[in-house]
């Protein structure tokens, strides 16, 4: 009780500092947020891996909280009634045993260790085995084919039976100026796009060269995310989206490869930043891989709670967050194998539960509100992709998606951000709402990291639904930007996608509780209005939204 009293006192002091004239909203309890995160990220939940016993534990916990809050099930229809989940069929793929991987450089075989020099994903193209012998290596710059920008890194090269070697991020990441938005990453810079383009080019595989700055995360994150079980949505033609080999290699490995082929890595990188770049064969160097694949179709689940609207129930405001993390994986230096995922994303799931409590405590909104806790975000936004491709409630009459991913459990900040640099009415409304708590909007401090494409709101955005992923601010009340940035940098370097992302007893959750008041007000205002926010006129997502305009009249 003492801890709860202190938490509430801290929150009330924070509210007094920031929101003397802020609107009244339901209480958001930092102690409950802490307890939810503590439970969901405990070792008992084994890192919340999809299609493991931990999934059942997670579903049972979240559903119990939704029931206690008073929201109704909003998932699949069965016998005319909604269930608490939406079934999400996924292709699950694992490499059987230790893969045999190597380069042959000038006739000399150079073995590669999985997770050390290379991180190979289990095949998602439908292969039951990967057997590649001495496939030629071809450097294709940033691996971008963008006709609208008059850009083609492939320039007619035949990649059949060959391995493409590419750089991460966009061609203008290094210079900050160019055809791809300067520092702000486009989808062409994302690793997902690069693998997709490799499949379209008919390559046998692709090796992405890891560099920490343009990737925005270290090698440990790459290794932990790519050497475990892989998932994909079930596709009719998986080979059209995936090559047999999808992998990353360490930068030093790439530099040595280029040097042995008589090439300068940095010089070629500069060439790749220009429209005139042409593919370069790494002479007398090949790649070999041999391993079996264990794959099967499994069913994971999105968890869905709903409050039906009192006047316009067919119009929907969605709050989303992913419940999954990396599960049990390779041990760290301390021998810890459980990737607990406290910040990422037990915080978002706890936020979803607390928002459900808040809405259920008030009179029913005019529009329906859905609390969507999706699966397999860590496997490529697969739960949200499945929902958006097979929505339980029509996307044309979905007002907005407000996503929460890896919120800050510390004290309050003076600002907030969103993932990416999208322009849309929803952001304008969020900014106006936040001002009532004296918070200001700060543009994504790292647009080059491509965060816009790395959270579940993207699955909605690319189909036209106005969507934002809320980001905690870095200008802390206690310590300013210096303290906020230091904490963020430490998390990314030492805890992100690592076993050490664990609940901490000294996290106050007061900043997160205040932020959720703002997000509650944003969603409540939308749910009690007849407005339809849209994208800016020059947004790449505007056209998709406008095609369904007639359904919103």
UniProtKB/TrEMBL annotation:
InterPro entries in the record: M28_fam (IPR045175), PA_dom_sf (IPR046450), PA_domain (IPR003137), Peptidase_M28 (IPR007484)
Signal peptide: 1-19
Swiss-Prot/TrEMBL keywords: Aminopeptidase, Hydrolase, Metal-binding, Protease, Signal, Zinc
Alphabetical list of SUPFAM superfamilies matching this protein: PA domain (SSF52025), Zn-dependent exopeptidases (SSF53187)
Limits of the Peptidase M28 domain: 302-513
Gene3D superfamilies per the UniProt record, alphabetical: 3.50.30.30, Zn peptidases (3.40.630.10)
UniProt key word Protease: yes
CDD domains, sorted: M28_like_PA (cd05660), PA_M28_1_2 (cd04821)
Residues in PA domain copies: 135-224
Record has Chloroplast as a keyword: no
Residues that span the membrane, as ranges: none
Matches recorded under Pfam families: PA (PF02225), Peptidase_M28 (PF04389)
Name of the protein in its database record: Zn-dependent M28 family amino/carboxypeptidase
Organism: Dyella japonica
